[in-house]
Amino acid sequence: MQEVNNFTPNIVAFCCNWCSYAGADLAGSSRLSYPANVKIIRVPCSCRVNPMFVLKAFQQGADGVILCGCHPGDCHYVTGNYYTRRRMSLLFSFLNYMGIEKERTRVEWVSAAEGAKFSEVMNDFVAKVTALGENKRLQDLRVKEE
Amino acid sequence: MSELEKRIIEKAATLLAGGEIKRVVGWKKGEFIHDPSPATFETEESLKDFIYNDFCGANLSKYLIDIFKREGKTAVFLKPCDSYSFNQLVKEHRIKRENVYVVGIECHGKLANYKVEEKGITGITSEAHEGENVVFDTLYGKVTASREEVLLDRCLTCKGKKHVVADETVIINDYEDKVSDRFAMVRELEAMTAEERFAFWQGQLSKCIRCNACRNVCPACSCLKCVFDNPQSGIAAKANDDTFEEQLFHVIRAFHVSGRCTDCGECSRVCPQHIPLHLLNRKFIKDIDSLYGEYQAGEEAEGKTPLTSYTESDTEPNNVFTVTEGK
Ligand code: SF4
Ligand code: SF4
Question: Please, what are the domains in chain A?
């Protein structure tokens, strides 16, 4: 794992139960590594992720938020990720407009068979967020430890 | 009284006299001519307080959510931009179209009270547009101001003089539509660095006093139970030690109305802190236009919105910035 000035980012990864969470599992059982500072939150479908979840994650100290779901066309609920795609595209573009760098947010499609992709994506995302440094823009000072 | 105002009040009187229409929604005189407020009129007699002038910026559509449920038919006066909100509310099943009689009325741009006040113009007794100026008769004499400087922000980028819904119209002058670029400021912000944008928004949003006026006036914010009213949301009030609350409130509100915001400009009009809230909504509108095709909420009273539909070939999230930043 890359470390700059001893900074280890907090990463929150929302993973859908049917594809991406299983993909993470496969990465684990195939002994592929991904950074330990990625905190996975399992959701039934990527479209379960309410924009409030993303903001709350930043508030509580996340430095980057990534959303993983089944590939478009493969959603367990048929169309869930198509809605996610529009919502998160707009939300992340909007956050960037508010000054929350676009490198801090990401959407990736990871299937249950893509353990290797999961590991690659996480390593890459962590590296990008590490390079950016700590998120100071959407955090709530009251939850920060000094 | 202007000819237009006279014709509108006559129209209200005829509608009430007809019997089918039980009440008319319009604007009522305040203490001065610059503080009219939305009101319901049920008798011809009460129309003596009816007013229609360039300070009647208030969009009456949202009031219909409650009023249309009363017995009998309701008539409402809508300016061209207000008619989009009406359509959008019909689309969202918040207003029953057949219960409301819509009278589309002429509008030549409405004035922003605070801009007039900032120019030191007070004691206004009457006012009229004269070419590119507005002429005020005040207790202290005649004052002229340039229209550009006293119009509401939303009127500077007027959508046009077309009513998207109306059972009849009261229009005397046919004003020409002006071409304007409502996304100019959004583009300026996009061209800044993330740090500069953050500083801009922090400067603006830290002025927010969380009075909720923007939410309360917004025709798109029509939920019976709003997420911000939940005391557990953790954002029910303004925090005094950081700006997260404001950021969250404004991000969530803009997101909730995205694809449904008609860009009526009411939020910016009512904000006591003069925060340019339309710049938030217009970012969503601009992105929707460039990613999913041009879309004007309220243009139609039926059909899906951009966020309640999708296509299999939608732009992939990783390519979004190449598309939105290129425009
Ligand atoms: S968000 Fe503002 S501009 Fe959009 S519909 Fe609501 S009040 Fe009008
Ligand atoms: S109207 Fe203005 S001050 Fe009031 S909550 Fe909205 S943005 Fe804040």
Answer: 11-139 (3.40.50)
